[in-house]
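Quick one:
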Amino acid sequence: MPGLQQVDIKRVERILNIVLDEVKPPVARCRLLSSGFAPYHTFQVTENLEGFKGCIGCGNCIDACPVLAREPRRRDKTPQRTSFALEALVAEDCDRCSNCVLVCPQVDTTIKHYIVNTRMVEGMARLLKKVDSDEEIFYAMSQ
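Output:
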């Protein structure tokens, strides 16, 4: 769970957009832009995770990745369930859907809200435009 002091999106927006525009899974870099775990974390661990930004290997990003869902054989390359494994398995085949970021327990909710409210809206607009264009082509061809 991210810390109480959430990252100020205005401070990281420029670099966040650069990270999200790359064609590779962004979860590890978004985690580094976050504030890290708070002292009230609920994991049963002996180390102090306050402010910790390393991957905890929960595997949420692996499970949420549509590339790995379409091609499950990629998972056979490693038993690891970390963001680093995700980057190695998916690399530049990333769909740039940001699912990995949205399911990571260590990414601040401010970053997740930014992705949902800004990036996904833009992506949906591009998709709708493409669908309209494809329908026009299909209609013209059927006439």
